[in-house]
Each structure stands twice: as structure tokens, then as C-alpha cells.
């Protein structure tokens, strides 16, 4: 009997441990199923702008192959053109893991009428600890009582735990895009934010939704809504002057002279990379589309690359001319056996980019 009792107790303990581990997963799975069901039968109805925000959040969180993204942001739910823009096109161009943070593959949204945005509805689908909807009117101040409380050991431990575990997402709009705004205040640790949006209507018009993952642990996401795309739209004779480009940032160039039914046919990417240097900057330019890649390299003859060097890249029906106007550099130093060693890196390129037949 003792043996049976001990084995029974051990079994119960193991069962409790398994239950503790699995319960959050079961609740999460049940919650996802419930969310999909309530949306299907119309209990929760997300507006087009809310769906766009949620989709870019999930894109930054897990990518297009993430089950949560696939369930909520399939082509039939966001439109095939949008799915091609943020998933298919980056995959074809070999940058499927760089949509988030590049701001070159936005989810385009055409609102024919005002669309509602509600923090409470977003909270049902966005699984971060904190959700903030900001505008340029949002401000933040320090809650000094919260700071003083953190001087007490038990509170400081709790604050440290929150800093290590609480995730956040910031959704940003220009206030001119919004009407019927309900404002709120919200506090994260010792920072109290005012003039946050709790509810509003987004005015009819064309919008572009982008996103970036600012921090990995705990996750911090920034989702941006703009009324113009950040990539370059070029036709013959059109130039972008004084364009500032950061090293290792992809620049998208959409050539409308070559437009077809397939977005990949008239979309090109460019990336500039530079290594450390001691006197004159040197760098590589990579220019590519779905079928062809070109690379050119150059070493400047001036410390700021102000000699106006030109590079020409062929497209299907013309060319793209890239003229380097200057490069901004930064000095970094380190110590080896008590001796200082310094080198330069390029922090920014300034370019003129033109399209010609």
C-alpha cells in the first residue's frame, strides 16, 4: 500500500507540474481560436486600419510564415496586392527577413471612408504588455513618487523584473490623420504619458503602414502610419536630390516606366556598405532585382567623398544614375596595450538618384 501511495503522490505531483506548464499554452490556443471565431461571426470587427497595424506587428514579431500572421493576414484578408508587397516581393528579392525596420515594404491602405481605431480592440489581438497610440502631441513626464518607491528594495526588485519582462508596442499617427479623438494618459514604470489616443477615427485617404522592432528583450515594437511611401518612385527624368542613405540600409526603387502586372518586374533594391578606413572611405554599391545583380566599388579621393562620383546601373528599359555628393564619417578609437588606435567609419551617404531612358 505504501508503494501504491507513494507512486500515486508522485503521479499527482507530475500531473500538477504538467498542468502548470501547459495551462498558459492551452489558454493562449483557446484565446486565438476564440478571437478568430468572434471575428468570423462579427462580435469583434476590426477596421482596415486596425488590421493593417496588427498585421505589421505580427510581421515584425514572427515574419510572414508565423502561424498568427498567416491566420490573421492571409491574402484573402489583407488583399493579394498587400500580401505581395510585404511578403512575396521581399522573398523574391532575397530580403524576406528585412521588411521590418527597412520601411521599404509598407502595407498600403486606401480608406474610402473614415475607419475606427480602438486601443481596446487592438489589445484583444496584440499580445504585448503595453499598447500606446501616439501622435506628435504625446508627451511624457517622470512620476517622482514612482522613482522614490523604487528606492525601497522590494519595489526596486519588482521594477527590475518588469524592465526584463514587459513588452510594448507604439503605434504612431500624425494627429491630422485623425478625428473624433478620445485622449488618455498611461504610465509605464515611472514615465507617465499624456495625450495618448484611446479611440479615434482615421480619415479617408491613402496610408502606408511600416514597422520596426526596436528592442529584442523585452520586445519593443514601433508601427508607423504615413501618407507617403518611403521608397523611391522613379520615372524618366525624375530625380531625388540630397537623399541621405545609411550604410547597410536597403533602398527600394520602383521604376514606373517598366510597370507590369508583377511588382517584382519593376522593383529594384540598392545597398551601400563601407568598411573601416584610416584615410579615405571605400565602399560597395549593390543594385539588384529579381533576376539580376550588379556590384560596383569605389575608394574616395577626398576624406568626405565630395568629388561627385557617378555610378550607372542598367534597368530593363533604361538606367539609374547614382551620384555620390558626400559621405559623413565618425571617428572611433580603442586602446591596445596602452596605445590608442583610431579608425573612421561612414555614418551616412548623401546621394542624387535619377532615372533616364
Structural class: alpha+beta
The side-by-side strand order for the widest beta sheet comes to 1-8-9-5-3
Task: Give a quick account of the main beta sheet: strands, pairing sense, barrel closure.
Answer: 5 strands, mixed
- Rg calculated over all Cα atoms: 26 Å
| Overall tally of domains | 2
User: If you average the pLDDT, what whole number results?
Assistant: 86
Task: Describe the fold and architecture.
This protein has 8 helices and 18 strands. It has helices at residues 2-40, 48-62, 67-72, 75-78, 80-92, 119-123, 144-149, 153-165; strands at 107-111, 115-118, 130-134, 139-142, 168-172, 178-188, 191-202, 205-215, 220-226, 232-234, 239-245, 251-255, 267-274, 282-288, 293-299, 309-314, 319-336, 339-356. Helix content is 28%, strand content 40%. The longest helix is centred in the first third of the chain and has 39 residues, at 2-40. It folds into 2 domains: 48-226, no CATH class; 232-356, Tick-borne Encephalitis virus Glycoprotein, domain 1. The strands form 4 sheets. Strands 1-8-9-5-3 form a 5-stranded mixed β-sheet.
Amino acid at each position: 500500500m505504501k508503494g501504491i501511495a507513494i507512486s500515486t503522490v508522485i503521479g499527482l505531483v507530475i500531473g500538477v507540474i504538467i498542468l502548470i506548464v501547459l495551462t498558459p499554452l492551452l489558454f493562449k490556443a483557446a484565446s486565438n481560436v476564440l478571437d478568430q471565431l468572434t471575428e468570423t461571426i462579427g462580435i469583434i470587427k476590426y477596421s482596415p486600419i486596425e488590421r493593417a497595424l496588427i498585421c505589421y506587428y505580427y510581421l515584425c514579431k514572427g515574419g510572414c510564415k508565423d502561424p498568427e500572421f498567416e491566420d490573421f493576414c492571409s491574402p484573402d484578408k489583407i488583399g493579394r496586392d498587400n500580401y505581395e508587397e510585404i511578403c512575396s516581393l521581399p522573398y523574391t528579392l532575397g530580403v524576406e527577413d528585412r521588411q521590418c525596420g527597412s520601411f521599404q515594404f509598407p502595407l498600403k491602405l486606401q480608406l474610402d471612408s473614415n475607419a475606427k481605431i480602438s486601443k481596446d480592440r487592438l489589445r484583444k489581438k496584440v499580445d504585448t504588455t503595453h499598447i500606446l497610440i501616439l501622435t506628435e502631441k504625446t508627451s511624457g513626464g517622470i512620476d517622482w513618487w514612482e522613482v522614490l518607491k523604487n528606492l525601497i528594495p522590494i519595489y526596486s526588485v519588482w521594477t527590475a523584473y518588469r524592465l526584463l519582462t514587459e513588452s510594448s508596442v507604439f503605434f504612431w499617427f500624425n494627429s491630422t490623420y485623425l478625428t473624433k479623438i478620445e485622449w488618455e494618459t498611461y504610465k509605464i514604470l515611472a514615465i507617465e504619458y499624456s495625450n495618448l489616443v484611446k479611440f479615434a477615427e482615421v480619415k479617408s485617404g491613402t496610408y502606408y503602414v511600416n514597422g520596426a522592432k526596436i528592442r529584442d528583450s523585452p520586445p519593443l515594437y514601433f508601427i508607423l502610419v504615413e501618407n507617403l511611401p518611403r521608397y523611391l518612385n522613379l520615372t524618366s527624368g525624375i530625380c531625388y536630390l540630397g537623399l541621405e542613405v545609411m550604410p547597410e540600409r536597403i533602398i527600394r526603387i520602383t521604376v514606373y516606366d517598366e510597370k507590369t502586372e508583377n511588382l517584382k518586374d519593376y522593383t529594384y533594391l540598392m545597398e551601400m556598405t563601407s568598411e573601416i578606413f584610416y584615410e579615405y572611405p571605400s565602399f560597395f554599391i549593390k543594385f539588384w532585382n529579381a533576376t539580376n545583380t550588379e556590384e560596383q566599388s569605389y575608394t574616395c579621393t577626398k576624406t568626405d567623398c565630395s568629388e561627385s562620383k557617378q555610378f550607372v546601373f542598367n534597368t530593363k528599359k533604361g538606367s539609374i544614375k547614382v551620384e555620390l555628393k558626400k559621405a559623413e564619417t565618425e571617428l572611433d578609437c580603442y586602446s591596445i596595450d596602452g596605445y590608442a588606435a583610431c579608425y573612421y567609419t561612414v555614418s551616412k551617404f548623401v546621394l542624387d538618384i535619377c532615372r533616364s531612358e
